[in-house]
Design brief:
Helices cover 35% and strands 22% of the residues. It has 181 residues and is of the alpha/beta class. It has a single domain, classed as SPOUT methyltransferase, trefoil knot domain (Alpha/beta knot, 3-Layer(aba) Sandwich). It has a 6-stranded parallel sheet, sandwiched between helices. Helix 1 runs parallel beside helix 2 and helix 1 packs parallel to helix 6. The longest helix is centred in the N-terminal third of the chain and has 14 residues, at 43-56. The structure holds S-adenosylmethionine.
Length: 181
């Protein structure tokens, strides 16, 4: 499978910082390789996500500020495909197999408020997670879970400093020895 990166369009500095942070955390936890926050630089969100990566491991990339058209154009130029998550798209169960068969990278586009109509034309697939309006965080989570065939619990996050030990009755966090990876 090629690289899978999420393109977050419509981020408004400060106002959307919390939701955009949740887009990034959800993308990372559910197996995406990175997020591009389009058009507006947000060094605070970038720093938060880098800190999570440093502590909990993995190779998740985060960048912000590049215009969304440039990101899509570069992605396609490098042979990748584009999935746009939208309530107006084709139902996920109808298109997921075709998307999973893509050998190149996948850019998964999610919006904030109204999406530019051009995105619908530039996408290889406009995909709906039900035809009801919902949160971009929820739509992204469902898409990634289906795309990665429910294997999020098996994802490795190398070079972590700490790891959560699952517990039925308390918070249990362990320091990871460097050689354990
Ligand atoms: C809160 S919605 C706002 C959508 C906006 N009202 C519009 O008409 O474009 C933000 C983002 O969530 C995603 N989204 C919302 N509902 C979805 C659904 N049912 N399926 C897939 N993606 C969805 C889309 O990426 C959308 O841009």
């Amino acid at each position: 499978m090629g690289r899978l990166v999420v393109l977050r369009i419509g981020h408004r500095f400060f106002r959307d910082s919390r939701v955009t942070t949740h887009v990034c955390l959800t993308a990372r936890a559910l197996g995406a390789d990175g997020v591009i926050i389009a058009d507006r630089q947000d060094k605070t969100v970038e720093a938060t996500i880098r800190e999570v990566g440093k502590r909990f491991g993995g190779h998740f990339s985060i960048e912000s500020g590049k215009p969304w058209r440039t990101s899509i154009r570069e992605w396609r130029h490098n042979g990748g495909k584009v999935v746009h998550l939208t309530a107006y798209g084709l139902p996920l169960p109808e298109v997921i197999q075709e998307i999973q068969q893509t050998s190149g990278g996948l850019l998964v586009v999610v919006g904030s408020e109204k999406m530019p109509g051009e995105v619908f034309k530039l996408a290889d697939w406009n995909v709906s997670v039900t035809n009801q309006p919902m949160s971009e965080v929820a739509a992204l989570a469902v898409f990634l879970d289906w795309h990665h065939k429910h294997n999020a619990f098996d994802t490795a996050f190398p070079n972590a400093q700490i790891r959560i030990v699952p517990s039925h009755d308390r918070k249990n966090v362990q320091q990871v020895e460097p050689e354990e990876g």
